[in-house]
């Protein structure tokens, strides 16, 4: 009997287990967890800009407003002007004078006379104007000297100065030159002096290679200006000029194209000339900044670039009164120069300087 009961109990237990296995599993009760925010809710954070960070937009330099001259000259109709006009002088002023001459011809002077402009250097230009008296106008990239004024007096001429613009002297290097891209005035003077022959003598970090120097000739106003503003500044008056003239491996030429060809053809070459010639040839040569400043309209007009200089033309009251075509051309030059000067690559003279030039014309013509 006891055996039967045990067997019966065993069968009942086994049957219960089978029934339990056939029931759906009950969801177990999870142990309490720390309260979490809903899945789509993040803890409160300061708002974040989801846009990628962009660098601030480049700010264009504020253009300098050029004040316009106030003095007006009598209107010139080149179509009513006839007679020959002969100008000569600075190779720097030459492209500007040539551009004004093209405009003068296009406005009616073409066929009315011969308008000739020679590029021979400021000194040679003053010689033709003051010594031989063969030209009507002298183009110059420096003011006339006292000795040249005295020479003019000997041929009964009193030179009248007309400011027509501003040039920045460009220090040019070969495109492969990656060491002399910024020069101080002292370094620039050393580069062109007889005191050094190799680049590493100016700066030990620069190549141990001969410096090949290209400079405008001694008749050039550009040469005179460079000597005064760079060489004399470091070595003193007269000593600066002597040093550059005695420097080895230096080629002097009145033809700026010769200088461009020399610098563009030699990695270790350096030269200087008017900014307009650099603009025309910047695909062939590089430009060095001076004291950390590169020449452009803002740095020249703002007085930051240290190698900027005035540009002039000169004539004489007697010449202009005896030759109305010369007076007309000078008038036209002063009234129209600002229309073409930036196209050439130079910078306008100040309104005060241009007004002074126009007043000088009025005084000469009474």
Can you put this structure into words, describing what you see?
It is elongated, with a radius of gyration of 40 Å. It has 366 residues and is α/β, with parallel strands linked by helices. It is built from 13 helices and ten strands. The relative contact order is 0.17.
How do the strands and helices of this protein lay out in sequence?
Layout: H1 2-22, E1 85-89, H2 94-109, E2 115-119, H3 122-131, E3 137-140, H4 146-154, E4 159-173, E5 182-183, H5 185-191, E6 212-216, H6 221-235, H7 239-246, E7 250-253, H8 256-264, E8 269-274, H9 275-281, E9 286-290, H10 297-301, E10 308-316, H11 317-322, H12 324-344, H13 351-365
Parallel strand pairs: 1-2, 1-3, 5-9, 6-7, 6-8
Antiparallel strand pairs: 3-10, 4-8, 4-9, 4-10
Helix pairs in contact: 2-12, 3-4, 5-6, 6-7, 12-13
Give the total of beta strands.
10
Report the span from N to C terminus: 157 Å
Helix content: 40-55%
Helix and strand run: HEHEHEHEEHEHHEHEHEHEHHH
Shape: elongated
Radius of gyration: 40 Å
Query: Treating each run of at least 4 consecutive H or I residues as one helix, how many helices?
Result: 13
Sheet bearing the most strands, described?
Answer: 10 strands, mixed
Report the portion of residues in β strands.
15-25%
Spans of at least 5 consecutive residues with low confidence: 1-63
User: Average pLDDT across residues?
Assistant: 86
Structural class: alpha/beta
